[in-house]
Amino acid sequence: MSQNTPLPFAKMHGLGNDFVVIDTRETPVAMDAPLARAIADRKTGVGCDQLILIGASDRADVSMRIFNQDGSEVEACGNATRCVPLFTGRDVTIETKAGLLHAARIGGLVSVDMGEPRFGWEDIPLAYAMDTLAMPASWDDLPPPAAVNVGNPHVVFFLDDPARVDMARLGPLIETDPLFPRRVNVNFAHLVDDDHIRLTVWERGAGFTRACGTGACATAIAAIRRKLAHGPVRVTLEGGDLLIDWTPGGHITMTGPAVHVFDGVLDPGSFTATP
Ligand SMILES: N[C@@H](CCC[C@H](N)C(=O)O)C(=O)O
């Protein structure tokens, strides 16, 4: 881990899923897992669910790299994507590991074209071939889940009575199950109506967050594929609501709020002091 110069950053969030956002367009930053973990640490760093690096791009207005709290670099983050137009001050096309995404401000909200979901077992990815709409896999007495890749991997359980499920034990157990070679984001969903879902997400590399944008997309899509719901679907998370729209064969649209909380400067000396 090495960072020798002060690092300006913005603290932002989408429905309480919080981010440290660093602009690397002019000044590249050598990011690695230990440095990402140090910045994300809520006691000795700034604290965040994900660290976001905004960079230059040849293919889009900007690029976006995403690091989970545990330092792992990942492909997609729905809530952070909504923060990018606030950070740059304009509607943007963003190059990510999950492809090109477009984010536009609409009224007080931000709407993102999240691209097309994938459903093949090797796309999730899973360790071996199986049906991804009703996976023949079980943990405790959870029902067969659905798996969806919306840039990053998700598994979705539809629960009649979420209060009876020990999510704090099952979330990390399922996240790291060998069935998911790249680990997985675990979505515990409850269908309120055919256009409304309540959702709790155990995020890969970050644990429970107040909201997960890609989790909301994956869950709405799984519900639509199972004909339990129709778009647009309101997904209610601890931090608030997202509106997700998708028709089979099409792109996903995610609409919700984004907030710029404050700006700061990270002291490079503090990182060397972190064990
Ligand atoms: N909070 C995000 C998802 C962040 C990445 C995820 N934990 C992963 O490892 O894939 C969102 O809003 O989508």
In short:
By secondary structure, the chain is α+β, with helices and mostly antiparallel strands. It is 17% helix and 37% strand. The chain has 2 domains: 7-113 and 258-272, Diaminopimelate Epimerase, Chain A, domain 1, CATH 3.10.310.10; 146-250, Roll (Diaminopimelate Epimerase, Chain A, domain 1).
Task: Give structural notes.
The protein is α+β, with helices and mostly antiparallel strands and 275 residues long. The chain has two domains: 7-113 and 258-272, Diaminopimelate Epimerase, Chain A, domain 1; 146-250, Diaminopimelate Epimerase, Chain A, domain 1 (Roll), CATH 3.10.310.10. Helices cover 17% and strands 37% of the residues. The chain contains five helices and 17 strands. It has a 17-stranded mixed sheet that branches. The longest helix is centred in the C-terminal third of the chain and has 13 residues, at 213-225. The active site is at 77 (proton donor), 77, 212 (proton acceptor). Its EC number is 5.1.1.7. Homodimer.
Blueprint of the fold:
Blueprint: E1 7-14, E2 17-23, H1 33-40, E3 50-55, E4 62-68, E5 73-74, H2 78-88, E6 92-96, E7 99-106, E8 109-115, E9 146-149, E10 153-158, H3 167-175, E11 185-193, E12 196-203, E13 207-208, H4 213-225, E14 233-237, E15 240-245, E16 252-256, E17 259-266, H5 268-272
Parallel strand pairs: 2-3, 4-6, 10-11, 12-14
Antiparallel strand pairs: 1-2, 1-17, 3-4, 4-5, 6-7, 7-8, 8-16, 9-10, 11-12, 12-13, 14-15, 15-16
The structure holds the ligand N[C@@H](CCC[C@H](N)C(=O)O)C(=O)O.
The site of the ligand N[C@@H](CCC[C@H](N)C(=O)O)C(=O)O has 18 residues, from α2 and α4.
GO molecular function: diaminopimelate epimerase activity
Family: Belongs to the diaminopimelate epimerase family.
Function: Catalyzes the stereoinversion of LL-2,6-diaminopimelate (L,L-DAP) to meso-diaminopimelate (meso-DAP), a precursor of L-lysine and an essential component of the bacterial peptidoglycan.
